[in-house]
Structure formats: structure tokens, C-alpha cells
Sequence to fold (399 residues):
Amino acid sequence: MNKIVAAILVDALRHDSITKKYTPFLHSLSETGVSGSIIPQLSFSLHPAWFAGVYPNDSAKWGYYYSPRTSPFTFLKPLSPIAKRSTTVNKMCNVATGKLFHFSGTLALYLPMDVACYFDFSDKNAPWDPNYLTQTTLFDILRKNNLEWLFIGSPGSNQSTHMILRRFSERISQKISFLWLHFAEVDWMSHEFGPRSSEAWKSLNEVDLAICEVVKKLNENFKDVHLLVFGDHGMVTTKATVDIEVKLRKTGLKPCRDYLFFLGATMARFWFNADSSRSRIQETLNQTPYGRILEEKELADYGCNFNDLRYGDTIWVANEGTIISPNFYNGSNIPKGMHGFTPNSKNSHAAFVMKSSIISESLKLKNPRKLVDLFPTILDMMGLSTPASNKGKSIFTDI
Fold:
């Protein structure tokens, strides 16, 4: 019997977005299979969770990190005066560096060149690369068992709905045992127009139709189809902004001399040259009502407590619905929707739907699952053993 396991990521598939009106196909799957919600990771690098079942502090991958000795941006530092005067030049420098060093994460296009030379990025290999992680990945297991896969998404492919569907139709074959698709347009529309905008709902409906087409073609080619559709995070409507740089300037401290910072859309990370600088910056952050400094215990709970300071000495996260503006990813542009808040933000939770011959009845799980749980779930669908390095718990344990 030919069998395929298909894992379909719908970027920003919110926990409350599967409805009979906008996603009739996914809704029908949820009524006959297993469905529930997923707690997102506080992370900039999610492939280790999906494909190895490990947290950031296991994989040591969490996006950009402090490492002036290995920074790939060093050779561009002479261009920093020009980049300061031209946003276009600054973007080009970031894009060129990302391509030259095979960065597979989200580029911080507005990362200033005089600051960039202090940073390196952790995702320089595709997740199927044998050297991607020290832990065992799904692709390591597939290779060991001589099983073929089809990967269409990031990195390596345009994630528009039309392009994903086209490439899938061109490349699907009965030799494949595992399929990975990544639809990203819902995320794009939710950022630009808001998570509950007509544009976002329309995009979600188009993805639903595409998934229906994918499943139809899979059923035509395979006798046993196991399906997992999930979101990596939800999306929160933007309600406020905070200018962290303005508040930092009021301390009288000089960046790159007294301290260093990296500004994401919802998280600001800091490194210091002295305890006095740390105290002054932390005092300023504690007086900012738009967010808070994350405590060590909370970081440990999220799997983001590293054994060194490469990802930050002090980490400040914005309140749900607040965006740091300007930041190194969006510049001064303000998205109408955002994710990346703490995992306990319920509006940041994602949805998942499972349909498999292993499942004999429909079930809606009350307790949310974690992204690391997807890895052992996929292996259970494939009938493969889970490696000892896995930190997740298969969803099938609740069925």
C-alpha cells in the first residue's frame, strides 16, 4: 500500500480562524478528525521545533546573535555612512549579506550597518542539510530509511498560494513518503491589512481551496493519506507603538560604546559593557509601560534560556498588540497585525487539524499543544521511531 504523510503549514493560521464560512474544507476536516490549538514558540527560528522537536536552547538557533568575531557584515562596515543616509543602500547590504552567507531566516532589512557588524545569524543551512542540527532531524530519519520527501516552502521556494500549488502539481510523485508545504500569504495579508481584515479572510479562503486541491490529488495518487495542517502562530491586531530608541537616547548612554541593542517588532535585546550601563537601561525599560523585561524563569519555561549571552543579556518584550517602531525588520512602517508576543498570549495561538487512518473518531482537544509536539506526531503517522533528543509529545498520546 502506497502511503504519504503530508504536513501543511499555513502561516498565521489563528486558533479561531477555521470556520465553515471562510475555510469550509479545513472545517470539514476538523469535524471528522482531530483539531485543537498550538502554543507558539518565543522564537525567531522554528524549523528545529517542527523537524527535530527541540527548543531554541537545545538547537542554539534563535535568529541574529551577538558575535562580532564571526559577523558576516564586517566587510560592509565602510558603507555604514552611506547606508545611514539611504534606506535602499542599507536594505541592499542586508539582502546581499543574507544571500552570500545563505541565511534562511527572516532578514532584518533595516538593521543598521554600523550595528550589523556585531551580529551573526544562526540559520545558515536548510533544515534538510545533514549538518543543520546536532540533534536528529526528520530528514536524517528519512535518509536513514531511504524515504523520499518533497519540500515546498521556506527556504527555497516562494510561499504564495498560487506558486505552492503549482510547484506541488508539477513535482508530486508516488515515490514520495513525506510532503511539506508552506503557505504564507495569510501571514502577509494579516501583517499588511490586519488579521481580521477582508483581505486576510480572502487569503485564508484561497489557501483552504488550495489545500482541498492538494488533498484531492494526494488521494488520487496514494491509497493511505495522513494529513496534518497547522499554523505556527496566530496574529494580533496592532493597537499601540513604542519608540525604544527615543527612550534609550534619554539615558545619555551611547550605543555601540556603552551598550548594544537589537530591535525586533515585539522584542528588544540588549548587551552591556558595564554593570552601570545595564542598571540604567533596565531602569528605563522598567519605566516603559508598553512591555516588560523577561525573567530568567520565564525564559527557561519558553526554552530560551541559553548558557551564554549571545542572544541577549536583557530581553524586553512588548505587551500584546504593541509594536516597537522603528525596528530592524519593519523600519518605521507599522504593520496592522503582528505576532511574536509571549506564548501565553492566547491571540497568538495557532490552530491545527489532523486526518489519518490511525484516528478512528473525531476529537477536539481542550488543552493546547506545542510546536515541538508536531515532530513526534509526524513520526507516529509515518510509523517511525522518535529519537531520544526529541522534547515533544505526540498528539496521538491524547487520542
Remarks:
- Residues 42 and 342 are 6 Å apart (CA to CA).
- The chain has a mean pLDDT of 94.
